[in-house]
Predict the structure.
Amino acid sequence: MTRTEPTREPTREPTREPTREPARADPAEVSIRLAVAEDGPAIATVYTAARVHAVPQMPPALHTAEEDRGWYSRRITEPEVTTWVAEAAGEILGFALCTATFLDGLYIRPDLTGRGLGSLLLDVVEATHPDGYELWVFETNLGARRLYERRGLVEVERTDGSGNEEKAPDIRMAWRP
């Protein structure tokens, strides 16, 4: 969910990606790097899986996995966007998509949540945004809200969701050093 991205028209519910043996993500073996254009499909796969898994903490995603692949493949190449990926053994485990002032998305593969990958990515976001950043989080996404609060983000605005494509209540949070 983001307020700074172009709006995509909703279509149908996303489908679950095929299941596979989960990679073991020992934070000591995870590296963080800038995404490249070829990472678009893998980033979209993480996003789609995370959104499907997050229901009901987050509203259902409005786009198909194929639409997500196209959108992320384009979005990560836009000049105003920086995308960081967490990877191990050449596999993308999570990502943070940022603009100069916003963290537009932080998603971790669902089988790897709670292992510190989100914090590793937030370390990079904070280091690359020395003046601070903001983000939007769904009001119902309590796990993400707790993570952001532990990292020092504070609530600056609540809305009824009329400004996001899911039409779900959300919260704007900010991190200021």
The beta strands are 31-34, 82-88, 91-98, 103-108, 133-138, 154-159, 170-175. Residues 40-54 form the longest helix (15 residues). The chain has one domain: 30-175.
